[in-house]
Amino acid sequence: MNALVRVEAVSRAFFRRDTEHVALNAVSLEIDSGSFVCIVGPSGCGKSTLLNMIAGLIAPTSGRITNAGTLVEGPRLNVGYLTQKDTLLPWRDVLRNVEMPLEIRHVAPAERTSKALELIDVVGLRGRERAYPRELSGGMARRASLARLLIAEPDLLLLDEPFSALDAQLRQEMQNELLRLWSGSGKTVVFVTHDLEEAIALGDRVVVLGELGRIVRDEHIALERPRDVIAIRRRPEFHAIEARLWDALAARDDVEPAAS
Amino acid sequence: MTTAAVPTGTSRSKPRDGARRMRIYGWRVALLVVTIAAWQGISLFKGMAFYISSPAAIGARELQWLADGTLLFHTTITLEETVAGFIFGAVAGVAAGFVIGPQRDVGEVLDPFIIALYSIPKVALAPLFIVWFGIGIWMKIILAMVTVFFIVFFNTVAGVRNVDPDLVNAVWLMGGSAREILFKVIVPHALSAALTGVRIAIPYALIGAIVGELIASNRGIGYLVSSAASQFDTAGVFAALIVLTILATILNSLVNIVDRRTSRWKVDADLSLRPN
Questions:
Q1: A159 SS3 class
Q2: Three-state SS string across B199-212, please?
Q3: Digit-coded pLDDT (tens) for A8-57
Q4: What is the ipTM of this complex?
Q5: Nearest CA distance, B170 vs chain A (angstrom)
Q6: CB contact under 8 A, B171 and A100
Q7: B173 vs A: CB within 8 A
Q8: By the 8 A CB rule, do B107 and B100 touch?
Q9: Residues of B in contact with A81 (CB under 8 A)
Q10: From CA B58, how far away is CA A77, in angstroms rounded?
Q11: Please, is B96 exposed, middle or buried when counting C-beta atoms within 10 Å of its C-beta (0-12, 13-18, 19+)?
């Protein structure tokens, strides 16, 4: 497999009240094209900063990030980004929110509407096209965000704790939904979470970050696809992987180089 | 997976709602009748009618004004002042907010001056406006306009400035240009905040007009109140106050209509996306 995203010795520092804080220190990571990579780590480990840099929202202080062989210098059209917080525009209904990325690309109105309706159907929001964001439940708003993300047909999906604000049952529902939408699509997914179980259930690969974004473990998840996130949690292999990763998270000080 | 799996639960209907509403309306009517009866009763005591008039006298006055055209004439004047002041103030407030809002440096320079102007009780400006614009209709329109202007202006500026950076980032990540971010995020956000200001300002336009009429006028409902009071005509004062109450109530229900029309997408006062 060839790497789609290359993170090469990337560091990121920021200033707060004239004091320099380091968020990430010399992180290197390769993400294979078409893979589903989960990045786990405690809060403050710099996982969101890393994702923001891959998205091109912020620039590394040193080091470089390439996407499909070219240097990332700003947001790209083939990259979709979904944050924990809903960023649907409150004055647009679901349909017009989902159409937004195509509107920016100057796609003809009739075409973008038909495509948006199709995606609204795919994410299970049919009948809510004319609802405004404040009229949606948390889960429905996530589905609308997902539709808006997918309508732009990105090759690379960056998901930053996308389901962490949902209750447990809805979260599992959305996880299955995401896997269903991703499988066979050939899209590359980088999924940031602090939930180890979620990472194992979804990913082909789980990267555990420690302080300053140091990679403390990089585990290949050899569980079959397609998966059901609820059923897979009951498997003995799942628990073995989980135990290994927990140990890595707990003993963040001993460096454990990448396995596979 | 279907949407049915997602809980929507907001539209719980209460079967006894109708009966309860009827009971509440019943009590309201009862309260009104008792108050009017008590009022009439107390006014029968010796000398009391001078202070509180009586519902019968007030009703008679209302009918007389209705018949001789007094009511229509003065109400029209007050409404004209209110509506004109409101429109001028709202338009000027939105325009100024959009001009000054995006320019942070200009805004910061002007900030203390605008706050100082805003802090002046508008009533105190009335004598100055009389000097400038005379005691005609324009003085009342300007007074209403100034009151409305500040409310709309502050809301518009806040709307321009408090745009959620996450929304801006989201559109930027979609490939949106600075121009698209302006027209698809900042302007709609500011307009919905401006609308909140416009909504709040509706009753204030009436206050501005009435204050102007109370201070110097020979027409309008404010004039009716003050001229009746100066002749110790309590029935006239109450009759004019009742007209004013009805007018204010109509304006407030207008606010509620605007509210209902916009609440589906309106940005919250704290400017967050959804109450969670």
A1: strand
A2: HHHHHHHHHHHHHH
A3: 999 998 888 788 888 888 999 999 999 999 999 888 888 999 999 999 99
A4: 0.84
A5: 7
A6: yes
A7: yes
A8: yes
A9: 170, 173
A10: 72
A11: middle
